[in-house]
Amino acid sequence: MTTTTHGGTKVSASKNFNAELHARPSIYFSGPSLVEHVAVMPASTKIPGIAEVRPKSLSANDGTRVQVEHHTEFTTVTKVTPLKLPLQEWPQDTNFPRDFDVSTPPFRLICRVSVLVLDAPPEDISPVLKQYGFGDTAASAIGGGAAQVCSDFLVGPGGSSRILLFNGELNAYRLGRMVRRICEIETYRSMSLLGLPEARRLAPALKGFDETLTDLTNRHLNTPVEEHEKLLDEISTLSAHVISATAETRNRFGATAAYATIVEERIAELRESHVPGFQRFGVFVARRFKPAVRTCSATALRLEQLSHATMHLLDLLQTRIQVGIEYQNTVQIRAMAERAAVQLKIQRAVEGFSIIAISYYLLSLLKMTAETLDHAGLHLGPYTMLVSIPVVIAAVALAVFRVRHALK
Q: What are the E-state strand segments in 123-192?
C-alpha cells in the first residue's frame, strides 16, 4: 500500500528496496540429496537488464524442489532431489522441467554444477572419493568444521563439475545456505572468466597498438612541420582504435572484476579449515582463478594507459602545431608592422612634398592675383609677396598637421 509523508511524498519504493534483502532465498533441505545448479544467459549479444520476475521456488514430485533466479546478465536454475543411501556410484543428473530446458535457444550454458550431499564424513574420505571417481581432489572443512567439501573441478561427461559435501552438523537452513555459496562460487567464477577470451583476443591488437604508439612517438620528435598533418591523422586513427577497443570491453572487464569480488567473498564465507592431506577448496579455486582475473585487469589497465598515452601524444602534437602557427602569425605580424612603418615614412615624406606643392600652388594663385590687380591699377609692393610666402607655407603646414592629428 502506498503511504505519504506530511509533505505528500510517496514512500512506497522503500518497501520494494527492503524486499531486495530477501530477493535471493536459499532452498532449505536436509538429508542426502543431489543438488543440480545451472547458470544460463541469452545467446544474443544484447544483455537484458534486471528481470521483473522475482525468484521463485517450485515444488516437484517426490520432494524435488526447483528454484529459478533472474540476475542482471544470467539466470540460474537450482534443483534439489532427495536420495536414498547407500549409493554405489554418482547419481545420474536428472532432467530439468521442460520450461527450463537450457539446451535450446535462446540460452547458452555458462556453468553446470552437481553437488552430492551425504551424511557425516568418515575418518578417511579417500575411499569415498575413489568410489565416485574423483581425481586430484581439493577438500576443506567448512562452516567451522560442521561439514566437508571436496571437488576435483573436472567437468564430467554430462557437462557438470562435481562437488561432494559431507554434512556433519549443519541443519536444513545452514546446509541450504552453504550449498548456495558453493554454487555461487562456481557460477560467479564462470561469469567472471567470460572476460578472459576478450583479453586473449585483444592481446595481439594491444601489441600492435604499443608498436604503433612507439613509432609515432619517435616520428613526433623528428617530423618536419610540413608533415605534421599526416602524423596527426595517424595518431587520431590509433586513438580511435584504442577508444573503440576500450568501449567494446569496458562492461565485460568491469563485470569480471565485480564477479571476482563476489567469488572471494563467498570463499571467505565458507570459513574453511585445513583437511590433512588435501589442498584447501578455496585455495585451489583462487590459484587457478586469480591469474585469469589479473589478466583481464591488466588488459583493462593497459587499454586505459594506451588511451592516455595516445591522447597525450595527440595533445603534444597539437601543441607543437599550434606553436608553429603562432610563430608564423608572429612573423606575419612583424612583417606587417615593418610594412606599416615604411608606409608611415613614405606618408610623412609625401606630407612634406604635399606642403610644398600646396604652398607653391597657393603662392602661384597669389602671384596671379597680384598681377591681375596690377593691370587693374592696384599696385602691390614686392614686400607683400615676400611676406605672404612664409605665411602661406605656415598655414598649409598647420592645416596638414591638424588633419593628421584628427586621423590619429
A: 138-142, 147-155, 161-167
